[in-house]
Amino acid sequence: MKKINFPNSLKKGDKIAIISPAGAVEASQLEKGIEMIRNIGYEPVFGEHLYSSFSKGYNYAGTVEQRINDINWALNDNEIAAVWASRGGYGCQHLLEHINLKHYKENPKWYVGYSDNTVIQSYLLKKGFASIHGQTVKTSSFGVTEESYGLIFDILEGKIPDYSLKSNHFNKTGSCEGQLVGGNLALVYALLGTNYSFKFKNRILFIEDIGENFYALDRMMMSLELAGVFKKIRGLIIGGMTNMGNEKENTAYNESFDDFAYQLISERISKYDFPTVFGFPNGHIKDNRPLIIGGNIKLEVEDKVKVEFEN
Question: How far apart are the C-alpha atoms of 243 and 240, rounded to whole Å?
């Protein structure tokens, strides 16, 4: 397995680039997150097209060329110490064939984001670099807890997390070790069969999602099964599943961890014996524990659940 590089830790005063690689965002939606970055002691630096807008069946944060220019600037500028996505949405897949890591390889930096940013994180991992699956800048204005962001800053500053949580009745007990891959299920699914897909053999897979019909959730899980993913992985961690199904029919629509979604997943993986964690606090939810994509973890699933990253 390729050696995975953890980017350099940040020090106070370092510059954090904020870019919009996918959906358009308004300045008012980022004010709280930008102020938080400043208050912690870092200097936010804006991509040229951070607030651009380009409509073509979806409201993107600029044209493909504009978004490519911003991500390549952020990844390669030696004055930038970390890159933080303003939001997800849709559009990161447009950038994959055009990402340039010429100077990034000399000076790797943490990339922070989730949702549509999963595809950027898969790209970076294939090149040998870890990233942070954590909240975007925009979600700070949506009631996400301060601790969710504080733990991201901990990782940026070199403090590797360990997590302990209560068991879930859907869990499958056991223990394993391996490299953590994954992110948003819809994007893990969308990358299957491409050169940008995560590798799954001997890995521990993390998935989360929002706003999917239950049949679409089952279809994505079915595709992972048909692709042989569940025969390859050592363990599975399921995060938030929220706004699933029909809002009028699903009483758990606004819950962070939808029990029926978990039931569908549990049934789909029932014939496999890898340890499985349901209800891990990461995803499109308000109380998050950031994960290091590409980090090696020890996973223990018993009466309590432990997720320990190796330094």
Answer: 10
